């Protein structure tokens, strides 16, 4: 098992996993058994930001309708959309090849939102055991994990973590910040 991160903790990937070149980022969660009148559909999304903290282009927003980054190597790939979150283990995941991230991308923001949250009267207060983890694609070993421990009773979007490039080094920040307004709130923040 890898390093367990706390909210706000930043760590150098070069220091904790010097051989890491590509990572699988797994996201998981459980939904409370409370009946909300509809299924929960949580969605992972990724924002590829430039120096200005905004998405480089519309194609640099990776989500269920745009599964790969626009660079020729598709350095960031979302591995589909799990619409129920049922079962153990990772509910959604993505591959990030750190060797191939284009130089204009300075930060990779990994988020989770609840699809049609307002319509379905759902929020992250009804979600348990949410986590994000980073696994070395080559060794299959978990490098780090961040378990979301806060109770977001009105929030419908959460920034889980950020990978960012600083001084020639990829680092990760365990963010754990919730927002009202779902995916649109995040789009407004990063567009």
From TrEMBL:
Please, which domain of life does this record's source organism belong to?
Bacteria
Task: Provide the protein name.
Answer: Stress protein
UniProt domain TerD: residue ranges? 1-190
Task: State the organism named in the record.
Answer: Cyanobacterium stanieri (strain ATCC 29140 / PCC 7202)
Gene3D superfamilies noted in UniProt: sav2460 like domains (2.60.60.30)
User: Which Pfam families does UniProt cross-reference here?
Assistant: TerD (PF02342)
């Amino acid at each position: 098992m890898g390093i367990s991160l706390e909210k706000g903790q930043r760590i150098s990937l070069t220091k904790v996993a010097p051989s890491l070149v590509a990572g699988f980022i797994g996201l998981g969660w459980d939904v409370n058994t409370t009946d909300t009148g509809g299924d929960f559909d949580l969605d992972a999304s990724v924002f590829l930001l430039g120096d200005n903290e905004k998405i480089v282009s519309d194609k640099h927003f990776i989500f269920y309708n745009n599964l790969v980054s626009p660079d020729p190597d598709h350095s960031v790939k979302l591995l589909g959309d799990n619409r129920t979150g049922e079962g153990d283990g990772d509910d959604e995941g993505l591959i990030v090849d750190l060797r191939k991230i284009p130089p204009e991308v300075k930060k990779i923001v990994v988020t989770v939102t609840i699809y049609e949250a307002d319509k379905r009267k759902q929020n992250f207060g009804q979600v348990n055991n949410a986590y994000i983890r980073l696994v070395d694609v080559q060794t299959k070993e978990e490098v780090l994990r961040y378990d979301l421990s806060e109770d977001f009773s009105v929030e419908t979007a959460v920034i889980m973590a950020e990978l960012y490039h600083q001084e020639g080094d990829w680092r990760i920040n365990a963010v754990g910040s919730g927002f009202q307004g779902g995916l649109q709130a995040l789009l407004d923040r990063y567009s």
